[in-house]
Request: fold
Amino acid sequence: MQKEIYQLLVSRKREQKKSFAVLIDPDKVNDSSIDDLIDISIEANVDYFFVGGSLVVSDNLDECVRNIKSKCKIPVILFPGSPSQITKYADALLYLSLISGRNPELLIGQHVISAPFVKKSGLEIMPTGYMVIDGGAPTTVSYISNANPLPADKSEIAMCTAMAGEMLGMKLIYMDAGSGAKNPISEMMIQKVSSCIDVPLIVGGGITTPEKAYLNCKSGADIIVIGNAIEKDQHIIKEIASAIHSLNSIKINL
Reply:
């Protein structure tokens, strides 16, 4: 399996280059809105599109990804909420294992079911330790997973969970406060997790301002993912992209 995108992520982390990913939920876009989103993202130099959602009840995942691929060269990475959210038209797949929970189905069970199809898909597979952090509001992922999120004020638990995920072979760590989180993940927690792992760190959930995106990157996040805020105002993409990329000319010492 190819490893082009993962190698790019690792290379950017090594160079302390920060990246911005726009999260697209196929259930929440139509042809017109996604065209506008793509145009704005190209202009803002967005680094990646993440595509997926906790449910995805529509049947337009293939169409959504093909539409993106036909209009730009921004890599499309699947962020699936279930094994059924797979399309061969994407570039890569975050193969998520919910390491913050204790539900065996989301640690390995659904992966066993999806493995043959995923292997045949030809996608670049990136094993990802997925950590749900309490964002102050119930989330779809917590309900679907039947797993409690990690406490927002327990940075040590998050740190040890991320360390365990990396030592178990996860190639990425993804910390998520969930869509529409009232409280984004704290800079302290991000800093502690980032300081104890070598793999790239993705952070998302509740990030609604360029300032918060900037501070998260400065604390150690390698990739910032924003979805819900963009659904409300697509034009914030440019401001957030500018804030994140402004750090790429600065060497950060954590």
